[in-house]
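Input.
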Amino acid sequence: MTTPFDEEPHHRQRPGWIASFRASFLTGLVVIAPVGLTVWLIWSVIGWVDGVVLPFVPDSYHPEPLLNRLLGNESPLDPDWIRVNVRGVGVIVFFLFTLAVGWVAKGIIGRSMVRFAESLVERVPVVRTIYSGVKQIAETVFNQEDRSFEKACLVQYPRKGIWAIGFISTTARGEISKRAETSGRLMSVFLPTTPNPTSGFLLFVPEEDVIELEMSVEQAAKLVISAGLVYPNGQDPTRPPKT
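Output.
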C-alpha cells in the first residue's frame, strides 16, 4: 500500500529511436573521421607535390603522353586518345631526385660542391639567414644520429608537488654541466606544451629528480596532446602499459 507521501519508483526508460540513431551516427563518425581525414590529407599532399614537381618534367614524359604513345596515339585530337590523371608521379620523381642528390652529396665531389654553394650563400645577407635557419631545422628533424628522445619522464614543474610529463633527450654536457651547482648529473628534459607538443621548455634537471616512465615516448606524446584524456592503458591508467 502506498501513501501520497511515497516517492514514485524511478523506472529506467529505454532510449528512443532518435537517441539510438544519434548514438549510432556518432559512433560511425568516430570510426570514419580519422580514416577519412588521413586519406584526404595524404591525397592532398600528393596532389600538392605533383603540382610543384610535374611542371619541371617535360610534357612528353608525363603519364598521359607516355601511355598514348605506347598505344600508338599521336595527338590529343585523336579520337582514341586516352585521358588519364595519375597522382603520385611527382612524388616518385621527387623521391628519385632526392635519392640521387643524396647519393652525389655523400661523395667527395658532391661534398665539395655543397661547400662551394654554401660559401656563396653565406655572402648574401638575407638569403644567408633564411638558409641557415632552414638547414638547422632540417638537420634537427631528419638527422638519424642520436636525435630522438630516449625516455618519457615525470618532473616537478613549475614547483614542487606539481608533476609534468617530459622527454629525456640526453645528459647535460660542457659548460652547462660544469657551472650548475649540483652534486650529480644533469638531465636535459624537454617539457612539451598541450595540445601542441612541438613547443615547450628545455629544463636541466638533476638526475635524482627525474622519474623515468615505462610508457613509450609516443604514448606519452598522445597523453600530452589529448590533455590527459588518452592514457597508454585505458583499462587502468594506474598500471603500466601492457607490452
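The beta strands are 151-156, 163-171, 186-192, 200-206, 211-212.
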